[in-house]
Amino acid sequence: MRILLVEDDIGIAEPMTEGLRRLGYDVTWVKTGREAIAADPHDLVLLDLGLPDFDGEMVTARIRETSQVPIIVVTARSDEIDRVALLDLGADDYLVKPFGFRELTARIRAVMRRVSDRPSPPEAEVIVGRLSIDGRTRTVKFDGADVILTPKEYDLLSYLASDAGAVLSRDEILRAVWDEHWWGSTKTLDVHIASLRRKFGDPDLILTVRGVGYQLAEPAS
Ligand code: CA
């Protein structure tokens, strides 16, 4: 997961960057609002309010013009009005300095969870062979017949279908479908795959690639 850290204070930014990288986040650190607005898309933005060029309200508003990326504002101010205004502008959460690293990571996880629960923008129907997946309704048809999936089964199937024919590693799948920091049993994945195979009645729909992961069979053309 890629995090954009916008913070002009080295004393805060360095330990934050280091700590987040240790947890496996891919962190880009910039020091100004200008760089934040110009940055490539990230999965989450940590935004300090007191920047040398623009204020955080403006940066938030500018980012929101083009992106729904989750934004956690980091503020030294404790003014209630500011926080409300920020949330109104489109920030997803805020942290008041000083904060502990654990609080930071808990907020990141909470925001990412909320975002993944948001209804996603309508996606076109994805068709892979006999399978059709409608992202707008989260429904799946196989040979034209509805197949009822649990939310996780649906997420897993649509992730595999997003790159049909490619071998996706177990790690990749667990990170994408479960959680960036999944420490649970990897058996969970196998159980869901088995369940998908059962529901579709076609063991060859999802292939096991021994020692690597899984592959949604690309239809023969
Ligand atoms: Ca600052």
What labels describe this entry?
Rossmann fold, 221 residues, Arc Repressor Mutant, subunit A, alpha/beta, 4-stranded antiparallel β-sheet, 5-stranded parallel β-sheet
Question: Summary?
Answer:
This protein is α/β, with parallel strands linked by helices and 221 residues long.
Percent helix, as a range, is 40-55%
> What is the element string, with H for helices and E for strands?
EHEHEHEHEHEEEEHEHHEE
Write down how many β-strands occur, each being a DSSP E stretch of 2 or more residues: 12
Quick one: CATH superfamily of the largest domain? Answer: Response regulator
Description:
Helix content is 41%, strand content 23%. With 221 residues, it is of the alpha/beta class. It has two domains: 2-117, Rossmann fold, CATH 3.40.50.2300; 125-216, Winged helix-like DNA-binding domain superfamily/Winged helix DNA-binding domain (Arc Repressor Mutant, subunit A, Orthogonal Bundle), CATH 1.10.10.10. Strand 7 and strand 8 form a beta hairpin. Helix 6 packs across helix 7. The relative contact order is 0.10. Bound molecules: calcium ion.
